[in-house]
Specification:
This protein has one domain (2-179): Rossmann fold (3-Layer(aba) Sandwich). Helix content is 35%, strand content 22%. The chain has helices spanning 10-21, 46-52, 62-69, 93-100, 116-119, 139-148, 162-179; strands spanning 2-6, 25-30, 42-45, 55-58, 78-81, 105-108, 122-123, 126-127, 129-133, 152-157. A six-stranded parallel sheet has the order 3-2-1-4-5-6, with helices on both faces. The protein has a two-stranded antiparallel sheet with strand order 7-8. It is globular and about 40 Å long. The structure holds NADP nicotinamide-adenine-dinucleotide phosphate (NAP). The site of NADP nicotinamide-adenine-dinucleotide phosphate has 24 residues, from helix 1 and helix 3.
């Protein structure tokens, strides 16, 4: 898949590298220069990376994502919001993105675990789960990108389930203080895997 990655720090750099290794055509969008100097794929301006990608990962601070998104053309794109923070009391970032770009397909993923778990998603024979939310339209394509990172995709529901991801993030932070940052969740269930 053609992927535009906005943000070249721990999350954008790590996920972009993993996806390029998995065979995706990745372009990083930067304001000035990348934070990592060993990035694979192309590097261009933010709007060039947006044009390039069928899927766009936003891995920058949440408020910066909304500010940047105002002037970007995102219609028809699969938007993956990995941000934490930037919500207002009125609206989470994902809902604000939908309001700004009703023609985009907005998902939230990769925000509930520290980046170390994208570099190394395995725990012995087990892999961590990655909770994600968004519309059903491109659910399977986003799930595929999660699998390519080595995590099990676990679809929680549409964007109204944003609070579930926030709660999972709080749990991750709470546990990581005692157990360290190489820490993921594995959900046990009898339901259908999606
Ligand atoms: N670190 C983690 O383990 C983790 C885990 C889950 C989710 N997250 C979330 O993922 C996002 C990225 O986290 P991070 O730790 O990789 O990096 P970060 O320190 O939150 O952000 C740094 C990146 O954001 C870019 N950036 C900052 N302001 C920008 C703006 N106004 N316009 C365009 N780009 C801007 C920076 O570009 P410049 O080099 O140009 O400044 C840099 O590439 C954050 O929202 C964070 O909450 C982080």
């Amino acid at each position: 898949m053609k992927i535009g990655v906005i943000g070249t720090s721990r999350i954008g750099g790590t996920l972009g590298k993993v996806w390029a290794s998995a065979g995706h055509d990745v372009m990083f969008g930067v304001r000035d220069k990348p934070r990592m100097d060993d990035l694979p794929g192309a590097i261009g301006a933010i709007d060039e990376a947006i044009q390039h990608g069928e899927a766009i990962l936003f891995a920058i601070p949440g408020r910066a994502m909304l500010d940047a998104a105002r002037s970007l053309e995102l219609g028809g794109k699969i938007i993956i919001d990995a941000t934490n923070g930037g919500d207002t009391p009125e609206q989470p970032v994902v809902q604000a993105m939908v309001s700004l770009h009703p023609g985009a397909f907005v998902y939230k993923a990769f925000n509930t675990l520290g980046f170390e778990n994208f570099q190394n998603p395995t725990f012995g024979d087990e892999r961590g789960d990655m909770l994600f939310i968004g519309p059903e339209a491109h659910q399977e394509r986003v799930a595929g990108l999660i699998r390519d990172v080595g995590l099990n995709p676990l679809y929680v529901g549409d964007l109204d389930q944003n609070g579930v991801l926030d709660a999972a993030l709080s749990l991750w932070f709470g546990l990581s203080r005692r157990l360290g940052r190489h820490l993921a969740f594995r959900v046990l269930h009898d339901g259908m895997i999606q």
